[in-house]
Amino acid sequence: MLARSVLLIGTVASLAMASWLASAEEVNLPPNPYSVMENWAKLPNGQIWGEVIGVEMDPDGESVWVFDRCGPTGCMDPIGSKINPIHKFDRDGKLITSFGAGVFNWPHGFFVDGEGNVWATDGIGVNGKGNTVFKFSPDGKLSMMLGRPGVAGSGQDTFNRPSDVLVGPNGDIFVADGHGDKSNARIVKFTWDGKFIKAWGREGSAPGEFDVPHGLAMDSRERLFVADRSHNRIQIFDQDGRFLEQWKQFGRPSGLYIDRHDTLYVADSQSGEKYNVPFRHGIRIGSASDGHVTAFIAVSGPAMPESLAADDHGNIFGGFVETRTLKKYVKN
């Protein structure tokens, strides 16, 4: 009887394991209805891309804004400090404008609001710069700065490695503040003119806590999506920071983008053998309404998309850090 019991327990365990493995493998099985266009947009005069850390759509739904790290040497290099990190391209990949040289230490967060203003975060505070959030007009004029340049803190007017920024429909500003290494782990909310409203979150794994809040997005219901990267999840909040739910089916999120139809695009730059097994890194696409994943663009080799955006036709633009490139994924 004991032997039969042991056998039965072993059989049940084996079936459970087989079921889990089948379910686990399914996370990488959604179809890929896209073809990739390499080198879709090129910088002028032979300029070489830096690490492409941010991609956003213009309000026209066609033009693409791109944020890179000042060429191959980086923004803190004497040569890199003279290179513009913010670029706008038309639908055909032709450069329209560039600006931002000399402003940043380490470009990171990126957002374009409904009026075409460009928002960007500087994630490293040294030499009297960084740990700041900037607002530029569409033609590159600096019109607002949040944070104290070069100062790290967790107060109402300081950040510590801000990762992303987003502006809500009513003009409220949300900053994902923190990028590991004893930095912050919170969301900070401001009025449209930069007055502090509130902050929520701390380091931890419970609902409402974070470890590298790496990206932000907002759906049509004005729910705030946070890419809580090191916890392999997206956390969803209301406008006041009340936790609503969390999703893990989109992998280990670095970048988030939600289009006008509530389609959610997620750049997973780290899943693989080291993190978040059995997920693979790539781009997952699904519904911001119910969390259903409908497509997966697998990315092979060291290429890891950290940022992305999608135009009104469903084409995706992916920013790659390690391979320093911008790719366009076109619907088949």
Describe the structure.
The chain is mostly beta strands and 332 residues long. Helix content is 7%, strand content 39%. It is built from one helix and 24 strands. It has a four-stranded antiparallel sheet, with no helix packed on it. A four-stranded antiparallel sheet has the order 2-3-4-5, with no helix packed on it. The longest helix is centred in the N-terminal third of the chain and has 24 residues, at 2-25.
Keywords:
7% helix; Neuraminidase; globular; 332 residues; four-stranded antiparallel beta sheet; mainly beta
Q: In short, what is this structure?
A:
This protein is mostly beta strands and 332 residues long.
Please outline the helices and strands.
Layout lengths: L1 H24 L8 E4 L14 E6 L6 E5 L17 E4 L5 E5 L7 E6 L5 E5 L9 E5 L5 E5 L15 E6 L5 E5 L8 E5 L5 E5 L12 E6 L5 E5 L4 E5 L5 E5 L5 E6 L4 E6 L13 E6 L5 E6 L6 E6 L5 E5 L4 E7 L1
Order of helices and strands: HEEEEEEEEEEEEEEEEEEEEEEEE
- When the domains are counted, the total is 2
Distance between the termini: 59 Å
Largest sheet: 4 strands, antiparallel
* Spatial strand sequence of the major β-sheet: 1-24-23-22
User: CATH H-level name of the largest domain... which superfamily?
Assistant: TolB, C-terminal domain
How many runs of DSSP E, i.e. beta strands?
24
